[in-house]
């Protein structure tokens, strides 16, 4: 396992590594969801290719200082996990080497990032695009893997790659869940025991509402109402948003005619969790 913290060193080392090269961008505190992405990367490049995992808690994508300060970090165990899952290289830069003091150029996305999570997290997706672009440029990866759990992030990255003609293939990976259905997330460790037990309600509520679609309902409103009612069964959950959107352009849909997404963001105190299910009419 090669661990690199300098961008210049990364460029040098990667120049000698066998292609294809697959990048898995993460913020660390790795769990089964990340492991699945790394395994998928290994599959995508085969035995002979190279898998690189980046571990970088990107400050410019955090809109709340407190969230950044409390973001879990676990580099030692992350290294072991990456090695076991089949990565060759870990890139774990310091903030000062990723963002030079005179940094004045960023990527901005102006449509998808005004919706859903973007509406409640101003600047978040611009921060994501900027760091992901830097990782693409530094790694010159042929392929990059992202989780569908963060479906809006995946949509934004795909749009960036298409709009800016970036020569890279983007692969989305299914969401990995805990036994009770909660989508795995590094933030789950910040839930209290009571909140963790309660949090299975998120996925259950989405599935219960999605059942209506299977029974023939095509109007969004009753499906949203059903999900909201189910979530009200929790004494802790505060809903940030609950929406049905088009799977491609993320615009709200009133009638479900095309593949859509029932998406939710909730707060347990100050821990914000997101989840979604696909609605296929
Ligand atoms: P993060 O470290 O939270 O920034 O996530 C790094 C990558 O792992 C992103 O592409 C996420 O979408 C993906 N990811 C995080 N949690 C999961 C999960 N439960 N299932 C699948 N992918 C995930």
Structure description:
The chain is an alpha/beta fold and 281 residues long. Helix content is 40%, strand content 20%. The protein is built from eleven helices and nine strands. The strands form two sheets. Strands 1-4-3-2-5-6 form a six-stranded parallel beta sheet, sandwiched between helices. Bound molecules: adenosine monophosphate. Adenosine monophosphate (AMP) is lined by residues 26-27, 33-34, 36-37, 146-147, 149-150, 173, 175-176, 183-186.
Task: Note the topology.
Blueprint: E1 2-4, H1 7-15, E2 21-26, H2 32-45, E3 50-55, H3 65-70, H4 75-85, E4 89-91, H5 95-98, H6 116-120, H7 124-139, E5 143-147, H8 151-163, E6 169-173, H9 193-198, H10 200-214, H11 220-231, E7 238-246, E8 260-268, E9 271-279
Parallel strand pairs: 1-4, 2-3, 2-5, 3-4, 5-6
Antiparallel strand pairs: 7-8, 8-9
The site of adenosine monophosphate has 17 residues, from helix 2 and strand 5.
Write a brief caption for the model.
The protein is an alpha/beta fold.
Observed structural traits:
281 residues, alpha/beta, three-stranded antiparallel β-sheet, 9 strands, 20% strand, binds adenosine monophosphate
């Amino acid at each position: 396992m090669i661990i690199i913290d300098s961008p210049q060193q990364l460029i040098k080392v990667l120049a000698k590594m066998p292609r294809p090269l697959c990048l898995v961008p993460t913020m660390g505190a790795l769990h089964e969801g990340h492991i699945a992405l790394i395994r998928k990367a290994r599959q995508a490049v085969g035995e002979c290719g190279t898998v690189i995992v980046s571990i970088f808690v990107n400050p410019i994508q955090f809109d709340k200082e407190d969230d950044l300060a409390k973001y879990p970090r676990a580099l030692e165990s992350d290294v072991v996990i990456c090695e076991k899952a089949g990565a060759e290289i870990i890139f774990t830069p310091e903030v000062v080497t990723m963002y030079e003091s005179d940094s004045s150029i960023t990527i901005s996305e102006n449509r998808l990032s005004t919706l859903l999570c973007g509406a409640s997290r101003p600047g978040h997706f611009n921060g994501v695009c900027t760091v992901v672009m830097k990782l693409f440029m530094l790694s010159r990866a042929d392929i990059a893997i992202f989780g569908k759990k963060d479906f809006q992030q995946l949509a934004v990255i795909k749009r960036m790659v298409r709009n800016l003609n970036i020569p890279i293939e983007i692969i989305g990976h299914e969401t990995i869940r805990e036994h009770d259905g909660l989508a795995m997330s590094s933030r789950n460790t910040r839930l209290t025991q009571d909140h963790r037990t309660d949090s299975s309600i998120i996925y259950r509520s989405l599935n219960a509402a999605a059942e209506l679609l299977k029974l023939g309902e095509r109007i969004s409103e009753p499906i949203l109402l059903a999900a909201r009612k189910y979530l009200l069964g929790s004494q802790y959950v505060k809903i940030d948003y609950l929406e049905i959107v088009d799977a491609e352009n993320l615009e709200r849909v009133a009638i479900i005619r095309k593949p859509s997404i029932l998406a939710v963001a909730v707060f347990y105190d100050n821990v914000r969790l997101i989840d979604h299910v696909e609605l296929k009419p």
